Amino acid sequence: MNDARRGRSWWGLVVALAALPVVILGFLGWMAVSAAVVSRDFLGGNPEEVPCAEALAFGGARLPQGAQQVGACEVTAWLDTHYSAEFRMPRAEVRDWLADTYLYAPDPDTEFCLDDADLCLELDFMVHSDPEVSADAVQVYVTYEDADTARVRFSAFTV
């Protein structure tokens, strides 16, 4: 009976020693994921300022004539790439700019826009394949600031 107990205790020690690397690797993996979630910079995910021409080109657009940039244009690249730009332009020219930029796009929406926008356009380039566009999707949200000025929020991203 004494020998049977001794055999079980050795197996317990063997199992514990075999499990130790798994526990250590699991803990290290958990630490790495936690660090990435807390600071996306760990994997290069903090926004960086880029020229607005680059941000718009990623989504197949150009800054409209006479537009005024609002704030910095940015790119965030982590698992996906996301460019954003914001600018003001003449309100009367917004629909023409969208139609000239995205010839195949549906008419901009006025009813179901997010963020209380007055006009929006959402494009899925997986549906509208365009070899000139690097983005998988583009979102354009337009808010009318007054009778003459529109504020445009542009984002283009991969999925």
Task: Set down the secondary structure blueprint.
Blueprint (H helix, E strand, L loop, with lengths): L1 H37 L9 E3 L1 H7 L9 E2 L3 E5 L3 E10 L3 H8 L17 E6 L12 E8 L4 E9 L2
Antiparallel strand pairs: 1-3, 2-4, 3-4, 4-7, 5-6, 6-7
Helix content: 25-40%
Our estimate of the beta-strand percent is: 25-35%
What would the average pLDDT be, to the nearest integer?
84
What is the H/E string?
A: HEHEEEHEEE
Cα distance spanning the termini: 64 Å
Number of structural domains: 2
Counted beta strands: 7
- The radius of gyration over CA amounts to 26 Å
Summarize the biggest pleated sheet: 7 strands, antiparallel
Class computed from helices, strands and strand pairing: alpha+beta
Low-confidence stretches: none
How many helices? The count is: 3
Q: Based on CA inertia axes, which overall geometry fits?
A: elongated
Labels describing this entry:
alpha+beta, 2 domains, 159 residues, seven-stranded antiparallel β-sheet
Describe the structure.
With 159 residues, the chain is of the alpha+beta class. The chain has 2 domains: 2-38; 48-157, no CATH class. The chain contains 3 helices and 7 strands; from the N terminus they run H-E-H-E-E-E-H-E-E-E. It has helices at 2-38, 52-58, 94-101; strands at 48-50, 68-69, 73-77, 81-90, 119-124, 137-144, 149-157. Strands 1, 2, 3, 4, 5, 6 and 7 form a 7-stranded antiparallel beta sheet that branches. The mean pLDDT is 84.
